[in-house]
Amino acid sequence: GFGQGGGKLRFTAIAPVERTVDEVTVPAGYTWEPIIRWGDPLFRKTPDFDIENQTARAQAGQFGYNNDYLNILADKGSTRSGVLVANHEYTNEDLMFDPAWMDDDHVDEARRIAMAAHGLSVVELRRKKAGTKWEYVRGGARNRRITATTVFAVDGPAAGSDLLKTKDDPTGKKVLGTLNNCAGGTTPWGTVLSGEENFNQYFQGTATGSPEDSRYGISAGPTERGWELTDPRFSAQNAGYENEVNRFGWIIEVDPQDPSSTPVKHTALGRFKHEGANVRVAADGRVVSYSGDDERFDYVYKFISRDKYKPGNKKHNMTLLSAGDLYVAQFSGDSPASEIDGSGTLPADGAFDGTGTWLPLVVDGESKVAGMSVEEVLVYTRLAADKAGATKMDRPEDVEPHPTTGKLYIALTNNTDRGKANKKAGADEANPRAGTTSATSNRDGHVIELTETGNDATALTFGWNILLLCGDPKAPASKLYFSGYPAEKVSPIACPDNLAFDSKGNLWISTDGQPGTIGYCDALHKVTLEGPDRGRVEQFLAVPAGAETCGPVIHDRDDSVFVAVQHPGDGGTYAEPTSLFPDYVAGRNRVRRGQAYAPRPSVVQVFSSRANSGAGRSRGAR
Ligand code: FEO
Ligand code: CA
Ligand code: CA
Ligand code: CA
């Protein structure tokens, strides 16, 4: 989305919003509207959404659930047409289905609806003029749904490996579906990358288990969703499906301009709980993809392509993530370990900072990990990185290179286990908060700024510093740090998750977890990176009760901000919803066609109320 903005976004930071408030709260002078909601039909023949008469067939043609990654891609040379790409991380059956309907006669259909509500959506957009609200085009030529049953090609060194073969796919090169797609990135060649994150929860492991299953959180018991009862491939205890789980946990690539293209799973980037992936083109033309593994004490990875980027040659560029080298980050602090006491207090040199090394896992087609083949390193990447000695981080979420400076920003969302007895690690300079209780541990997360040596994306060493130690300055559980900016002047911020940049190079951070930590609705914040205000955090919006803020897209030249509002009403039930966002229809007997007495994950556009007189909703509009 970078490059379409222009520094026009002027706003006064909003106050933090109490966590029960079921509103999208935006700054004065702005208004908001949903562009597309869970259940909105993508195709002409798809039925309108009807929450009381859902079918898997209808859902497969409707916008999916729990939108996370988002981009708004204007067509080249146009301000009035484009495509929206969003993924659908997971489903919340407690909010989607009437429990009375979920009986033995309907449970299989409910599971198939949930499968169809996962994946990705590509939807065409149009509008009358720049600066106004986009509308989605039902029946748009590029509209597409990808679900848990869509055919994917597998490429890279592990494609065709015995570790990926099943009785349905003896080639090990053709997988049905994508699951738990969290964050992502748009490549310089216009495709979308998306991370398969907590895929383990969909699969029942073998009865005996294995070190690999255990490292990936795959357990022998029945899954909560019970998909293995509807489709046998979801249990490794069904003969022939032992490897099905190995076919998930990858970065996928989708071409949103070509609805007939086959999406790809890239094994060269390794298999773990990929939050997402973001690409930077190096000075020599190779491309570098960065990715975080979102688990407590897991790692940050970097892939360097073998081949070079060719501007304008999408077909060639779509092969770049198929071959190259894979590395994992090791961070070293420059202050004495005795000064890193776990409280978040700055060491004597005044900074949490140091140097680091990208440790090799696969280089020039050869494994660099003793006792593991290339295929094993790529399929069991977490175990390879353990052996390599990577630094255990506080849940790496989005990892994004800055579009002009090249510096890498790493959101570390939180880790309340660091420093606890019998857990994997205590404080280090890159993860300096560790406590024995959740209040004193790294409850609120932090953000690291990483500079590749020589600002060369292909460098194998780097420098780093902590940009923010997050929290609520009015009620800090532990020490906070905003790169020296006065803490009393920033908006409270906790649990950084997704990152974006505006046209002036400011960092934008969306949060996932503020309600359960600092007590406010999740938010979108702008962070100034350069000049005297470096470290200044200003809250732009808040999402409704129970929701997390995802996929921020900042089109400041167009006076617009887009967010994916994920899991509104989380914690409520179908009968007693705690959010009615965005339809705000109270009472089932008043439900109109295409609306719902239920929260609906939706993509929202926030735009200037000046440019859209009469349109949109002001704060609190119902
Ligand atoms: Fe799905 Fe790491 O958040
Ligand atoms: Ca230091
Ligand atoms: Ca996330
Ligand atoms: Ca998260």
Automatic annotation (TrEMBL):
<dbReference type="InterPro" id="IPR006311">
    <property type="entry name" value="TAT_signal"/>
</dbReference>
<feature type="domain" description="Channel forming colicins">
    <location>
        <begin position="355"/>
        <end position="366"/>
    </location>
</feature>
<dbReference type="GO" id="GO:0016020">
    <property type="term" value="C:membrane"/>
</dbReference>
<dbReference type="InterPro" id="IPR000293">
    <property type="entry name" value="Channel_colicin_C"/>
</dbReference>
<protein>
    <submittedName>
        <fullName>Phosphatase</fullName>
    </submittedName>
</protein>
<feature type="region of interest" description="Disordered">
    <location>
        <begin position="418"/>
        <end position="444"/>
    </location>
</feature>
<dbReference type="GO" id="GO:0050829">
    <property type="term" value="P:defense response to Gram-negative bacterium"/>
</dbReference>
<feature type="compositionally biased region" description="Low complexity">
    <location>
        <begin position="608"/>
        <end position="622"/>
    </location>
</feature>
<dbReference type="Pfam" id="PF05787">
    <property type="entry name" value="PhoX"/>
</dbReference>
<dbReference type="GO" id="GO:0031640">
    <property type="term" value="P:killing of cells of another organism"/>
</dbReference>
<dbReference type="InterPro" id="IPR008557">
    <property type="entry name" value="PhoX"/>
</dbReference>
<feature type="compositionally biased region" description="Basic and acidic residues">
    <location>
        <begin position="418"/>
        <end position="431"/>
    </location>
</feature>
<dbReference type="GO" id="GO:0140911">
    <property type="term" value="F:pore-forming activity"/>
</dbReference>
<feature type="region of interest" description="Disordered">
    <location>
        <begin position="608"/>
        <end position="622"/>
    </location>
</feature>
